[in-house]
Give the backbone structure.
Amino acid sequence: MSQMSLPHAWWDVYSALRRAAEADPLITLVERAHVAEVGQDSSSAWARTDSGETWTADVLLGADGYRSVVRRHVDTERPHAAYAGYVVWLGQSELPSAHRGHVGGPDFFSHENEMLAVYPLIDSSEEVTRFGWGWFDPTRNDLFHRIGAVEDGRVVRTPRVSEVPEGVYREMADRAGGAWHEPWRDAVVRAFREREVIATPIAEYLPRRVVAGRVALLGDAAHAQTPMTGAGFEEAVSDATALAEMLPGAASPVTVLERYELSRLADMRRRVSGGQAFSRSFSGV
């Protein structure tokens, strides 16, 4: 198997995209600005931060994730993504040296009503020395409601490591020891014992529309989907590519965004719907 067919660590992907943005003279990066409101009129769209700073442009594209502020403007009746009914405990661990060079692509393992997804990662030197993993867990819903990460059927936030009780990490480590096999088991056990795990409640959003006049959505803001689809990043890139190909030289930004919605909406809905079928079966909802 070619190493290029394996996933890269997210930090490597982010760093490469960040460097490309910094090198582009047409891109201005603004740090630590929290957009609180967006809007539009007949000639422009705008975004305003909670400190009152405002940016105005011909179009506004919301790629602001599953808790999208921009989505509230695009579809006021359905502004929130729904909780899928389970969390994924996410970690990255060292691949035991004896197994380096002997692993394939992503793999999935089931135990009772839970699932472990593992995926070897290529580092910046094109070596495979680490693996990412996600433990799909539908048994902790009460905990995440209790700490306020999930409310009223939607994901409010990803909880901090310190919010999850120490006893939960110990219990998960013990369960990992009996549920999973090598070369993954010891690394997963160690990650829970050392609290090097992020608990991510999964949100899903099936869009009815992704455009309103001069404002459009892309990525998770438009179509949040379970990671089980394995296509969230790919779909976001497809959104961006479609927009990039349609916008230059366009006579009317509004017409371009209408074309974007027409070209992308059906595929967005298909991907999310496929993931929802898994989620409903997995979580028992």
About this structure: The two ends are 38 Å apart (CA to CA). The first helix runs from residue 10 to 23.
